[in-house]
Design goal:
The structure is a homodimer. Chain A contains six helices and eleven strands. In chain A, α3 packs across α5. Chain A is globular and about 55 Å long. The structure holds a DNA duplex (30 and 30 nucleotides).
Chain lengths: ~220, ~220
DNA sequence: CGTGTTATTGACTTCATTCAAATTAGGTGG
DNA sequence: CCACCTAATTTGAATGAAGTCAATAACACG
């Protein structure tokens, strides 16, 4: 069955082990992990740092479909080629797994198979919510949503340490970088967030207000 | 495993049969098939007609994530609740299948299991392309893309018989209905398409020009 | 302590939306 | 078959939200 091949499998591993083994790889800021059209021979898990997957359009336009944080699996394809580009947001460590069938994967390492499917489902749901955002939300609503979603995925605490630049946020929310900046300023003026001098940190002062703005 | 339940299974079927059986259901224009928050106990296949799945936002805003045409399966969820609303675009016939595990499904009706997975993968890829469109394409590019994608999914021929209204197109492309109308007029003025007096029909006069506009 | 990159701010423009009106199509009942 | 009615679509004019261009400011880094 063709679809049996869409799932990853364990890479060759020592005799009796049922553990899935991958190879660790360190990547640096903006380093390409794979590109659109590349043969999809592997899939990837973020260990530390973060990764963006995106598509390109004429005129240098980008659309980042997702940010991948530690624990996330990315690069799963149903076809034989990657349909996105993937790059590290900053220095990052990822594990690379050889792709093969779900059957083999499931028989060798059920836990990893579950991780893969679970991760895929989460991505799918996030992407569906993201369509609503891209199609129908205003700039301020987009940024409010972005902050809330990200704060739910990152280690808890009153503040968010953005792993990505303003440009990345813009390319994810379908906005111009200036609009991202202006929206953040607007939220800060309203006392909803606070942006310390280190601009990649954002303190959530009033989560309820953000939720009201979300849409 | 929780994820085992995300897949549908055959509904109870006669003794020895390994065929998946569903119940046919006829729905009329704008009839609700399921709503956001409903328990996701079934999944659905379009036989004739077409279906929209969408999310709602404050202020009466809609985002249609997908149109489902004959052969398409929709309503698959990883959780226990539907995350979208589904309504018929016009009179339609759908088959309703009781949901259960992939294991059972695969053992009873491999062909149907493949159909389900294949359909899900297609939807996923379409949705990913759609994010690029929503986030980064201009009105005219959106409409050009829409026409090309739809013409590739509908029975071939020089013309497209739109199963949906202009409002539905607008809510799918993240545009206002007036912008949809104006973009179509613009394409017609350029001689790229032709819109007969029956406005739900669109004749593609110059597919190459559309592809150039796509982005 | 410069220096280059990243982010912010301001001024202006533009594309798409909104509001309003006109037109067309399709259905209904005489 | 026609006149009417309602809903869908198109068109026009004005507004507005976000984009672009340009300049400045603030960091982070060497």
């Amino acid at each position: 069955m063709w679809w049996m091949m869409i799932w990853p499998c364990a890479s060759p591993c020592p005799s009796s082990s049922r553990q899935t083994v991958g190879t660790a790889r360190k990547v640096t800021k903006d380093e390409e992990i794979f590109a659109e059209g590349d043969r999809a021979a592997y899939l990837y898990k973020v260990v530390s740092g973060a990764v963006r997957t995106f598509k390109l359009l004429s005129g240098g336009r980008h659309q980042i479909d997702a940010f991948h944080l530690p624990g996330d699996i990315f690069g799963i394809e149903s076809g034989s080629e990657h349909r996105f580009n993937a790059e590290a947001l900053g220095d990052a460590t990822i594990i690379v797994y050889r792709r093969c069938s779900l059957e083999i994967l499931a028989s060798r390492d059920q836990a990893f198979a579950n991780q893969v499917i679970s991760s895929m489902m989460c991505s799918l749901e996030r992407e569906q919510d993201h369509m609503l955002l891209l199609g129908r939300k205003h700039a301020l609503e987009k940024i409010a949503t972005f902050l809330l979603v990200l704060s739910g995925r990152l280690p808890k605490g009153g503040q968010i340490n953005l792993p990505m630049s303003r440009i990345d946020i813009a390319d994810h929310q379908g906005l111009a970088i200036e609009t991202v900046s202006r929206s953040l300023t607007q939220l800060e003026r309203k006392g909803i967030i606070e942006v310390p001098s280190y601009r990649r940190c954002i303190v959530l002062r009033d989560r309820a207000a953000l939720q009201r703005l979300e849409a």
